[in-house]
From TrEMBL:
PANTHER family: PROTEASE SYNTHASE AND SPORULATION PROTEIN PAI 2 (PTHR35802:SF1). Pfam families: FMN_bind_2. It comes from Qipengyuania algicida. This is FMN-binding negative transcriptional regulator. SUPFAM superfamilies: FMN-binding split barrel.
Amino acid sequence: MHPNPLFRSEDRALFETLIDEIGFGMVFLTTPDGPRVAHTPLLSTEDGAVQFHLARGNALTKHLDGANTLVTINGPDGYVSPRWYANRDTVPTWDYVTLELEGRVRRMDTDGLEALLHALILRHEGRIAGEPWQAEDASEKLWRSQLAGIVGFELEVLAWRPTVKLSQKRSPEERETIMTGLESAGSPALAALMRSLVT
């Protein structure tokens, strides 16, 4: 998390949008075997919790229930070149959006895990054109076999720590040049966030 308070936000709607739009994050925990991270799809319950699942054999799975854990969601990011400023007597930087969630984790029961999977499928299949795939398209045998291989968890978020670093220290004219530069450098999503979030 960047220490500059200029890059903080209290906009819970923005946080929920990041979780929903990105839909993927990293779960960190220090275990008896050392620090570990798992990468997983995320689903917000929209009431202060985030759900996810891990493979039963994942190094974190046996340690998460009841643990205080950190989850991160990384949004768009991009290199900002000094050539985009009127005054080139400066240094490069990186603009980015990220959200850290800290809280206590509880293991979900099988019904909760299955509900999570159906919600994830519905959410992400709905983003793809054409007839959506449904869990019922898999055989009962395959579905049950796959379900047995994963464990569901829910993080009760106790701390929301966002960083929204979008060249806020620059003038409106410089930000416009930066947005154009980001678009031409292949970071249009970051430029779009700058346009919508920074006035």
